[in-house]
Amino acid sequence: MNRAIIFDVDGTLAETEETHRKAFNRAFEGAGLSWSWDQDLYRALLAVTGGKERIRHFIEDYGAEGAPKDDLDAFIRKLHAEKTTAYTQMVKGGELELRPGVRSVIAAARQKGYRLALATTTTPANIDALLAATFGDTGNSLFEVICAGDSVPNKKPAPDVYLRALEELDLPAGSCVAVEDSRNGLLSACAAGVATIVTPGIYTCDESFDEAALVIDNLESLDFAAIEALFP
Ligand code: XBP
Ligand code: MG
Asked: Around Cβ 13, how many Cβ atoms within 10 Å?
């Protein structure tokens, strides 16, 4: 079978962004910063993908005070590393579960011989924690290709991460279907030529998904035949 399903991670495999938001706030508090991202502010900040890029966006575009004037990159890297530690600890603590239908679609795809991949903006350590918490020891072996975070120069909505996944799968875009939760993710997959199913999440349900091949609340209500119908 030379077909693949490429899953996004955050918001798609699981509703992770609330845990990310709490982890950012824990890191800010630990660094002695007065910053605190509530849900409305975080929804706006999610326009920028990548945690480090999101922190920089908050500093430069929201006028956040407390960051050093010099070597801002090092400051952001350190703060984001502390956030990743907080996030992975919370995930390992069991606070996340897979979104409805994710486990059954992955099982059906594997049973039918589909290849599986991840294409995500998030940090690799976050993926390891989520896969271990939700699939146990077999988690990492489920996905033949995992393209994540800083492994590509341009994050979503740029197509880089999906192009990298196609390259590592050695498949053309037409032999793959993507599953996403956000407009940034949809634009990234579409720019790479990959037909995309969107399952909007709590932070993305108000976004537009006109370019999607299919928009559904979650994968639980999806017959696998509807995914197969998206392949030529
Ligand atoms: C979502 C993102 C990530 C997460 C936070 O990634 O944009 O930045 O919000 O994770 P995707 P990091 O939907 O592509 O999985 O702080 O590790 O970036
Ligand atoms: Mg996502």
From this structure: 25
Q: What is the pLDDT of residues 88-100, one digit of tens each?
A: 999 999 999 999 9
Which residue puts its alpha carbon closest to atom 8 of ligand 1?
50
Hey, what CATH topology would domain 4-15+98-228 get? Rossmann fold (3.40.50)
The 3-state secondary structure of 90-105 reads: HHHCCCCCECCCHHHH
Architecture of the domain whose range is 17-92: Orthogonal Bundle (1.10)
- Rounded to two decimals, the pTM is 0.97
Within 6 Å (CB) of ligand 1, which residues are found?
Answer: 8-11, 17, 20, 49-51, 120-123, 126, 156, 182, 185
Active site residues: 8, 10
Query: SS3 for 154?
Result: coil
